[in-house]
Amino acid sequence: MFNIEEELKKLPARPGVYLMHDEKDNIIYVGKAISLKNRVRQYFQTSRNKGAKIEQMVSHIHRFEYIVTDSELEALVLECNLIKEHRPKYNTMLVDDKGYPFIKVTVNEPYPRIVLARTMEKDRAKYFGPFTSVGAVKDTIELMRKLYHVRNCHRNLPRDIGKERPCLNYHIKQCEAPCQGFITQEAYRETIEKVIRFLNGHYDDVLRELKAKMQEASEDLDFERAIEYRELIDSVRKIAEKQKITDSRGEDRDILAVAKDEEDAVVQIFFVRSGRLIGRDHFFLRNASDVSDSELLENFIKQFYAGTPFVPAEVMTHEQLAEQELLEQWLTKKREHRVRIIVPQKGEKEKLVQLAKKNAILILNTDKERLKRDEGRTIGAVKEIERLLGLQNIVRIEAFDISNTSGFASVGSMVVYEKGKPKRTDYRKFKIKNVQGPDDYASMEEVLTRRFRHGMEELHAGKEKDSFTSFPDLIMMDGGKGQVNIALSVLEKMGLQIPVCGMVKDDNHRTRGLYFQNREVPLERNSEGFKLITRIQDEAHRFAIEFHRKLRSRGQVHSILDEIHGIGPARRKALMRHFENIEAIKNASVDELKSIPAMNENSAIEVYKFFH
Question: The whole model's pTM is what?
Fold first, then answer.
């Protein structure tokens, strides 16, 4: 039995993180302290005025635990990680975690490409952004390819120069075909330097060049080409207009402002990169009552920058922060260069902060009703599912489906929903390797085994959280009792305890209910929970079928042997001629495989490894 009074006496006067648990052992609050002894005791002192929210939280505390750290900075890092992992009920939380895309120029390659990147890695490539709009990034990349004819293929150059014919982009004059050696590496690099200048905001050079070409085409009476140049000029101007100059010194900074009422709070953020305002966004915060503007900004900074790969050199706010020095140390450590948090008092910087503040107030007033409707469709729908199934704290849902044509080229899909919204970056596709014929149960067993085995291996290897290492709070199977039992058997073999339910359809192939714990749970057809389940089921089905069609359209489904490294048409024919079917190849030893004249030891090992 946990005795709070006795445990309070044992608290050390050291920095660390504390976790409050309710009677069901759910973590309801995470905090940090310079002195655990002093900070945790304050919650249980009746003489202190703690505010309504903290009073309510304290009334639900059944026990607490703590982790001692060597410094307050270490405690801050741990606090951020634990809040992100557990999303405690009484912590002030971002309603939505958003990811921002980057434009990546792969200058680490001999013949660089321009691609959209979701994360910023230490790979010696150049990154521009982050940007608030995926559409804007795609438009910019498309414009870069039209302007500079940069390749977008995945060929390994210069190794593969001349091995294959040039692609369509060469024929429509959107690529100089470095894959054929039609442009030297030096000339291609000069083009990449122009791309980088453009992405750094130097538009005047390209506008002058395009105007000159448009004029030349007009004088030659080549009006079709002149129109193409005019359209390119318009595209460049649109991008230039979106990125307004805010600072002639060309610094990277984020500008933060918060607005709140009795219940809700919103933080407006302006993104300034290389002195240009490239976008803005806003975030709603829950559990914001009884919390000051300064505390709200501190909570936002911890959660936002814990989850974004880019940290600017400067963060500007309208409130002095109590933890400013500590937050600066943490951000500096993440950026690996000095980061300052400032509260400007006058001039252009102060005007920008006030503009962000006005925007935050406007959003709070206009978006409140829309946010509540959105929450009903997403988080509210998940809460309904929790009540139906008798579960708690469902954040991540994974749904699985199988698609095949009479058992030919079976594929599996995994779709992910977090807080009621699709998380498409975590979707995964599976080509069925070990099942022959139309056996959906065996195919699903293979998909689930591979999914969770992969996740457990990466967790044991200490990999960071990704689509495989992040395990779901609920698994939804496209089907009833049979598919649910397959999932439960896979989880049992792996020692995992994750709730599994089946999405049952009626005779007209429409969602009817959920199969959970050996019974069918009926659904109210007009409820938000029912609508969310239908969306998840349709999405899992769509993703599987789309993958299957894609494979068929590419002609890649004729043999599973095509997926094995080092097995080309000749070896594939030799294997099928010798063994007659895939099952026999799967059961063959390395010695049997390498005894075939077309095979050698390496290719035999590759085949054996693929099936085992």
Answer: 0.53
